[in-house]
Amino acid sequence: MNKNRLKQKFKEGNIKAFNTVYDKYCDAMYTICLRYTKNTDEAADMLQDAFIKIHEKCDSFNPAYELGGWIKKIVVNTAINHIRQNNKFDIVDSFESFEATLEEPEIFRQEDNSANIQDQLIQILKEIPTGYQTVFNLFVFENLTHKEIANYLEISENTSKTQLFKARKLILKKLQDKKILL
After folding, report:
1. What is the Cα Rg of the chain in Å?
2. Number of DSSP helices (H) and strands (E) in the chain, helices first
3. Among 15, 44, 120, 159, which residue is least crowded by beta carbons within 10 Å?
4. Residue 96: phi, psi to the nearest 5?
5. How far apart are CA 165 and CA 85, in angstroms?
6. How does DSSP assign 24-54, residue by residue?
7. CA-CA distance, 160 to 154, in Å (whole number)?
8. Torsion angle (degrees, nearest 10) of CA 5, 10, 15, 19
9. Alpha carbon 126 to chain centroid distance?
10. How far apart, in whole angstroms, are the C-alpha atoms of residue 58 and residue 120?
């Protein structure tokens, strides 16, 4: 089935098209869920909830757009809602003032597609506080601005910036501790 036909059949609610879409995107979306939680069972629950929503909303999909982006948005929203509903979003506040002009560590400017580094980063993300983890994911992986993150999570922009700064600092330390970075 070609891409446009698949998108149209998916929109119409065709179960075979939905199963094809599920098979195509399941693994990548599971990886996204793992970035937002600390265990595999929660990630599986998030993924299941997301695909239920995807199935329920398939008629609202616009075939003029990419299916993967639409699915990813629903998965991320489901993950964030899951964190909110379970009161697991712990913002680690600081009374220090924060300047947005802080220099980014070099590690976050480079693109490294090594599966080993990626797996270790996902493991490190599981080890940091949920507030750090969530803001880091939204900023780095979802490319949201601090203003968008603040609106999305109902926090201030400065809190978003502080959480990202602290997440990066902690991730960098953990990468150094694991001898991934010198």
Report:
1. 18
2. 8, 0
3. 15
4. -70, 150
5. 25
6. HHHHHHHHHHHHT-SSHHHHHHHHHHHHHHH
7. 10
8. 90
9. 12
10. 34
Write out pLDDT tens, residues 146-182: 999 988 888 899 999 999 999 999 998 988 887 776 5
Q: Domains, the chain, ranges and CATH?
A: 3-85 (1.10.1740.10), 106-177 (1.10.10.10)
This prediction has a pTM of: 0.72
Amino acid, res. 73: K
* Tokens 């480079």 sit on residue: 110
Paired tokens of 152: 């999305």
> Reduced to 3 states, what is the DSSP secondary structure of residue 178?
coil
Tokens of residue 108, six digits: 């976050």
* 161 close to 98: Cβ distance less than 8 angstroms: yes
Per-residue pLDDT of 79-108, as tens digits, reads 988 887 875 555 554 434 344 334 444 444
Q: What is the DSSP letter of 36?
A: T
